[in-house]
Specification:
Blueprint lengths: L13 E8 L2 E9 L12 H22 L4 H18 L6 H4 L11 H20 L7 H12 L34 H16 L7 H15 L6 H15 L11 H6 L1 H13 L3 H37 L6 H13 L2 E2 L1 H8 L3 H13 L4 E2 L9 E2 L1 H8 L1
Antiparallel strand pairs: 1-2, 3-5, 4-5
C-alpha cells in the first residue's frame, strides 16, 4: 500500500493498493479510509456555512409544512431531481419531456426517458421503504435494481454489489482517471459506511454526515454502473430518514449539474489533495443555494395557485371540475383531453370544452400544435422548475 496524497497534518483520506497479474504490476486502486469515526474540520468556513445551511433548511422545512396540499407539488421536485441527476451522467431528457407519457416520446429519445422514469420510481420507492427499512445497502440495492431495469447498464447486474474491478474515465483501466476499491475490499468498506450511517454516538451534525456519506459512497463505487445517481439519491433519503425534512423538497442535483466540473473536482480533491474539508464546503454551499431556491419556488407555487384559483372562478359551475383538474396537473403537469375526461368522469366533449376554457384563461398551454392527440401543460408551473 502507498499513500499518494499530499502530506499535511490532516488525517489520510485513503490509501492506494497495488494489484498484480502474476509478477507483473497491473494497476492501483484507491481504498478510502473508514469514516465511522469523529470528523474534525480545519477549514474555518465550515462552521459559518453549516450554521447558514441549517437555518435555511429549517426555513424550507417549516414552509413546506405550511403549504396546503404540498404533496401535489412533491412529484415535480422528484422529477426535476431525476432529470438533473441523470443529466450529470450524460442523459439528455429535459423536464418537459420527463412529464410526458412514453407513447409521446420520440424513439431516439426513449432510452434517456426510461432512465429518468426509473430514477423517479426508484426515488419514490426508496422514500416509501423508509417507513419499514432504514437506509442500508439493502435499500440502495433495491433502488439500484429499479434504476437500471430495462435501461442502459441493465445488463450489469442491477441490484448486486460488483464482483469485478471497475474504473472511471478512459477506455481501459490503464488510462482511467480513478479506480475504486478492489472487490475484495468492498465488504469491509461498505460495512463501515453502514455503521457510520447509524452511529448516533459520533454526535456529528447531520449535514456534515450527509456530505461525508455521499463522498464515501462515490469513492467506494459499489455497483458496476449507476453509482452517481444512487449516491445522489442517498442524499435525499438521508434528509427524510434523519427528519431534517418532513417532505422531500431539497435535492442537490440541480446545483451539481450546473457546477458539474466543480462537483467532480471537489470529490476528486479529497483523495488527490487529502482534503475532505473542501468537499464539505462545496456540499454546504450546494445546500445553502438549493434551500434558498426551494423556499422561493414553493412561495411562487403558492402565489401561482392562488392566481389560478381566482381565474377559475370565472368558469362558474365548471369551477369545481377545473379546480380538480388543476390540482392533478400540479402533480402531473402534462395531459391529454382523454386523460382529463377519465379523471373528472365526464365526456370527452365536456372535457374538451373545460380544457379549452382553461387554455383561454392562460392556465394551460397546448404544446404539440396538432389538431388531434393534443398535449396540454401547466406551463408557468413547469417553468418554475426549468429556469
Amino acid at each position: 500500500m502507498a499513500n499518494k496524497s499530499h502530506q499535511n497534518d490532516r488525517p489520510l483520506t485513503g490509501v492506494y493498493k497495488k494489484h498484480f497479474s502474476g509478477k507483473d504490476y497491473e494497476y492501483e486502486s484507491f481504498l478510502p479510509n473508514p469514516v465511522n469515526r469523529p470528523y474534525e474540520w480545519q477549514d474555518k468556513r465550515i462552521p459559518v456555512l453549516l450554521e447558514e445551511a441549517i437555518r435555511l433548511v429549517g426555513e424550507l422545512n417549516a414552509y413546506s409544512t405550511l403549504v396546503p396540499d404540498v404533496d401535489f407539488f412533491i412529484q415535480m421536485h422528484v422529477g426535476n431531481e431525476a432529470v438533473k441527476s441523470s443529466r450529470i451522467e450524460g442523459t439528455r431528457t429535459d423536464l418537459g419531456e420527463a412529464i410526458l407519457q412514453e407513447e409521446d416520446i420520440a424513439p431516439e429519445k426513449k432510452a434517456d426517458w426510461i432512465e429518468v422514469q426509473n430514477y423517479i420510481e426508484a426515488m419514490n420507492t426508496g422514500i416509501a421503504r423508509l417507513n419499514k427499512l432504514p437506509i442500508s445497502m439493502r435499500l440502495l440495492q433495491e433502488a439500484h435494481k429499479i434504476l437500471m431495469a430495462g435501461a442502459r447498464g441493465g445488463d450489469k447486474r442491477p441490484g448486486e454489489i460488483r464482483t469485478a474491478q471497475n474504473w472511471i474515465g478512459g477506455t481501459s483501466i490503464q488510462t482511467s482517471s480513478f479506480i475504486p476499491p478492489h472487490p475484495d475490499d468492498l465488504s469491509e468498506a461498505l460495512r463501515d459506511l453502514e455503521f457510520f450511517w447509524h452511529n448516533k454516538g459520533l454526535n456529528m451534525p447531520h449535514l456534515i454526515k450527509l456530505a461525508i456519506s455521499h463522498y464515501q459512497f462515490e469513492a467506494i463505487h459499489p455497483f458496476n454502473d449507476g453509482n452517481g445517481r444512487i449516491g445522489r439519491m442517498l442524499i435525499g433519503l438521508h434528509l427524510i430518514e434523519l427528519d431534517i425534512l418532513r417532505k422531500p423538497t431539497l435535492y442537490l442535483s440541480d446545483f451539481f449539474e450546473r457546477n458539474k466540473g466543480a462537483y467532480y473536482d471537489a470529490l476528486s480533491f479529497v483523495r488527490q489533495r487529502n482534503d475532505l474539508d473542501q468537499w464539505v464546503v462545496f456540499f454546504l454551499l450546494a445546500v445553502i443555494e438549493t434551500a434558498k431556491k426551494g423556499t422561493d419556488t414553493l412561495q411562487k407555487i403558492v402565489d401561482l395557485r392562488a392566481r389560478y384559483e381566482k381565474q377559475i372562478l370565472e368558469l362558474g359551475r365548471r369551477a369545481k371540475l377545473a379546480n380538480k383538474l388543476l390540482m392533478h396537473t400540479f402533480s402531473q403537469p402534462a395531459f391529454k383531453v382523454s386523460g382529463a375526461s377519465q379523471l373528472l368522469e365526464i365526456s370527452n366533449t365536456a372535457a374538451n370544452i373545460l380544457v379549452g376554457e382553461m387554455t383561454g384563461l392562460g392556465i394551460l398551454k397546448e404544446i404539440t400544435g396538432f389538431s388531434r392527440n393534443r398535449i396540454f401543460v401547466l406551463h408557468e408551473y413547469l417553468e418554475l422548475f426549468t429556469r
